[in-house]
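ugh ok so i messed up the first submission bc i forgot one of the chains. this is the corrected input, ALL of the components this time, i swear. 866 residues overall. if the numbers dont match what u have on ur side tell me asap before i send this to the collaborators (the ones from the other lab, u know who)
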Amino acid sequence: MIYEQNINYCLAKSIGSGGLDSSELSYLLEKLDPEFERLKKSYLSDNLPILTLPEVDDLSELSHIATVWRKKFDKVIILGAGGSSLGGKTLCALNQDEYGTAPGAPRIYFFENVDPFGFDRAMSSLDLSRTSLIVISKSGNTAETLVQLLCCISAWRAAGFKDLSESFLAICGPGNNILRRICLRENIQILDHDPLIGGRYSVLSKVGMLPALIAGLDCTKLRRGASEILNPILQGAKPSEFGPAIGAAISVGLSRNNGISQSVMMPYIDRLMVFSKWYRQLWAESLGKKGLGTTPIDALGVVDQHSQLQLYLDGPRDKMFTILMLDQKGVGMQIDPSPADAVELNYVVGRTMGDLINAEQRATAQTLIDSGLPTRIISFKELDEKTLGGLLMFFMLETILAASLLRIDPFDQPAVARGKLLTQRYLADFELL
Amino acid sequence: MIYEQNINYCLAKSIGSGGLDSSELSYLLEKLDPEFERLKKSYLSDNLPILTLPEVDDLSELSHIATVWRKKFDKVIILGAGGSSLGGKTLCALNQDEYGTAPGAPRIYFFENVDPFGFDRAMSSLDLSRTSLIVISKSGNTAETLVQLLCCISAWRAAGFKDLSESFLAICGPGNNILRRICLRENIQILDHDPLIGGRYSVLSKVGMLPALIAGLDCTKLRRGASEILNPILQGAKPSEFGPAIGAAISVGLSRNNGISQSVMMPYIDRLMVFSKWYRQLWAESLGKKGLGTTPIDALGVVDQHSQLQLYLDGPRDKMFTILMLDQKGVGMQIDPSPADAVELNYVVGRTMGDLINAEQRATAQTLIDSGLPTRIISFKELDEKTLGGLLMFFMLETILAASLLRIDPFDQPAVARGKLLTQRYLADFELL
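and heres the new structure output, hopefully the right one now
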């Protein structure tokens, strides 16, 4: 078992009026029966690629590129926005942070913004002869990503590099799009982005796998973790036995019946901080339609105990909480109390830093529960590729199932087109600015 | 003028039923009259130190420490949680990012979590002979900060350093607290944290100033920017003429009358990303009491256009937006369209990256407004220390004034004590875990 999900403290029988009635939960779970049938059929007919992605045979080709790049380059830039960035970034966070990378791995930077100050500082800090670049855009027409690429091409040219085919690579959808035309002209290798996979569901595709392989992750294990979460659906499990379905029903039920408008995702571990950002896009873009959906909020324990907990406990009762707990008992430095010599610190004598964070995550969950706030606990024994792959699949399925209950299409994002058009108009007609 | 605040698009007369009635705005602003009198009196009697902080004469002492440290050290670790970290981190973000620091400045790391994995990786990446440490806790009893410190002392000791007085420094409140006792015993210099200044209001005190000076910021300009925002209150301005009062009345009014439960802070510039996190604590901890307050949400343009905008535009209409716009027209690399050769990209021909982000921020604001969502625009011509100091004071005053309208104490955080007690109990009685 990759994880355990405990939803008891989201129910009225445990926490009182802030919780969901068990009968409502059962009702919603039953409504998911036909969706389970649809998912099984989609898997068999292969028309919903995120279900079959864990089994795609593309890792050897990608590994080959990754192996070469790991030798040739110290830094890798990933250009992309939203779904083209957050999946890979989430995976890479398992093997790199601001203090270092896993042995042998280049440092991977994700350029997500078009802030000229940050861009200039980044470019001037890099030795371009030891830096490579992956540009990702499913549509191939994302303005910010194209502008980033044009500026990077200029920077490489200005530094004297004529042949970009050695150090640039693109992932984009097929057909006639701008990114593809630029790459063909510049002799940049292109990998095809499956047009049936939306950006925010692309983490297990090459969009996430290539950065992860460069960062040194075991992508077979990642996908195995994802498979393990999905399998019960394919093997005929009922919604009431399936974690992501239970989570979806709890979320939708609490939103509909208990005034819950916000969903706080709070892992207790630095390596999952970007995971919360990935979840934030997944949930927001998939469900925020027709006035429906709840607002996902990313938090990090123990940091946000010192920033947000006051609001969570004593502000409006409009949030549900998902605490992601890693068991770290006994892990890390032992706390040497001798410099402290303080009676008040007796409780940490001989403990480790892992003991402390272990106690903190449980104390926070208990405090939320004692206040009658709906709190789901997802706990796991270790955080490796398998766990992370499982968590990613868990929340993709939960999101798709929640959309089914809301009768919403989880794969489109109709409302953002207007902003893109306006940006173009403002740029084109500069006098209006 | 440091900034311009435009609140027209928060009002019903501009955006329809999602906006606040002008009469309600006037009513709330009038209710702030007595609070303005109180603030003036507090300033004159010096019993609310954040008002007089911009004039405190402590920068020369702090500059002396900073000058020595900038020469002796390549890295500086700051230990602290919440208010002990977010202020300094917000300031330092003006002069450092993941790609580098301002010339001559050490890299400053903020250790906020007690995740053993991250802590170990950080410690093993550092050359301790070139690394110094500032530990900050107002109470002097924050468990996580004390454990971080004990582990750092062990690490320095293990690396052969006997005398910590050269490279460690503490900021903590007066009186008999654990941190002070450790420092006295270890011969670590202590600077006093003013007991009247709460953590989340401490950014302009030495808690923020010392890291900022080490990072190379002009702290006189920072405080001058703060003064400039505060001055109109001291000079007898009315609430209806005062930006932070108008902002407070809009927020409280929209929450009370228009179902707004969330406040999205969205700067369009990387250097203000941490500012949004600082705001998040300030607003959440100050107002999230007695079932009141709204949930602050940090977002970053253009990144979150590709992650959250779908929800903002088409999900529940429960958010107000504050867009922080920096004018970057003409700034940054010019976009060379020759590799593109795409008719569809004609609109960026000859533009700069700054032009693009300029158009994006305005396009997003316009899109929100066109959807009838309450949108406040705060714009400024440049982002330097003066602007940042002004923004910090603006939002501290807005928060205090909003608390006044809600009849809440903006300076306490009564609900978090229980979680702290539980953590201790869990650690003390480990069998229960």
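quick check: Chain A has a mean pLDDT of 94. that seems consistent at least. The longest strand of chain A covers residues 319-326.
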